[in-house]
Amino acid sequence: MTFNPDAASWSPDTQAVRGGLDRTNFQETSEAVFLNSGFVYESAAAAERAFTGEDERFVYSRYGNPSVATFQERLRLLEGTEACFATASGMSAVFTALGALLAAGDRVVAARSLFGSCFVILNEILPRWGVETVFVDGPDLDQWRAALSEPTTAVFFESPSNPMQEIVDIAAVSELAHAAGATVVVDNVFATPLLQRCGDLGADVIVYSGTKHIDGQGRVLGGAILGTKEFIDGPVKQLMRHTGPSLSAFNAWVLTKGLETMALRVNHSSASALRIAEWLEEQPAISWVKYPLLKSHPQFELAAKQMKAGGTVLTFELLPPQGDRRRRPLSRCWTGSPSSTSRTTSATPSPSSPIPPPPRTVPWVRKAARQLA
Question: Hey, which CATH number is domain 262-372, 2.60.40, 1.10.3470, 3.90.1150, 3.10.150?
Fold first, then answer.
């Protein structure tokens, strides 16, 4: 495919609408959807050159597809990286990025506050394959410094973290990681490239769940890995090609269209989330509220430094009503649906969250949810 070489100099709003556009000879107004699994060749010799990599062209949609390539190019432009590889889901992006870096005997240092499935990969699956995982408190640079005082292969964290909104100093941790020989992988799903470009802060690899803000409307699953051309076209492409967690052409098309409106949704929802967070702090039934750009947030200054806005998600804890026999708070909730789409709701933690849900939903929790909605 032929992409516009001037696209890197366009504004993010233009990149989100025009980036990666390569019209066919039919000159369609909207990006075409290529639902085919394979491609034809003019001769057996041409097929052989394609499969051996001598000719650069599409061979099989598990390896690459025009609709997927359009999405990859558009997201790459917004993130400002050299290359991008789309995956079937956000978790396949996380697992493939780490799998492309790590082998038996390697060491990875990760923040402790992670999305539940990310924690399982680092705490259970990778150690079973001979990878050592060391967990630290993400905001604590002293813990990072101690953990990275010995050679390390990879570093992984989320900032803001899902769902507890912890902020990691991306620049400082990246500097420490690089001194230890580590590649820094950041899950930037809560911030998106619109609010935080991790590569500009020192990260090497950025992963996304396209299911969240990129789609933004709860329609499809998808994910992406971004980084250097050497990393994406090398170990990532090799692992993706032979293990198969590829993104479907239709989902890629939906995500491409989602990128066109992502700025509208993320900017508006971020402003709403801040107003809701400020209101919640004043409510007597709320124990605490976590939102990156609340001045009460422990890492407020850092968040304001490395993020353009606080994001679309906030986390809070409801106190039990007076007279309730339970002495502990009953529920931790956050705005956003379980897939963190553009619809603002109140929800108890999903099964994939590290926070256990309450034993039952009581009337005052339902009442608070209705008020927030």
Answer: 3.90.1150
Nearest to 137 by CA among 101, 107, 173: 173
Please give the backbone phi and psi of residue 215, each rounded to the nearest 5 degrees, phi first.
-75, -60
pTM of the model: 0.87
3-state secondary structure 122-166: HHHHHHHCCCEEEEECCCCHHHHHHHCCCCCCEEEEECCCCCCCC
At position 323, the amino acid (one-letter code) is G
Q: Do domains 7-259 and 262-372 have the same CATH topology?
A: no
What dihedral angle (degrees, nearest 10) is formed by the CA atoms of 67, 73, 78, 80? 160
The topology under which CATH files domain 7-259 is Aspartate Aminotransferase; domain 2 (3.40.640)
Tokens 């050299």 sit at which residue? 82
| Whole-number pLDDT of residue 5 | 86
Nearest CA among 191, 218, 221 for reference residue 86: 221
Cα gap 162→180, rounded to integer Å: 26
* pLDDT mean by block of 10 residues, the chain; 373 residues: 87 88 86 94 93 90 94 97 98 98 98 96 98 98 98 98 95 98 98 97 98 94 98 97 95 97 96 95 93 97 98 90 58 47 44 44 49 53
Residue 359 neighbours by CB under 8 Å, 6+ apart: none
Residue 125 contacts residue 156 (beta carbons within 8 Å): no
Sorted by where each begins, the domain ranges of the chain are: 7-259, 262-372
The pair of three-digit structure tokens given for residue 117, joined into one six-digit string: 């499935």
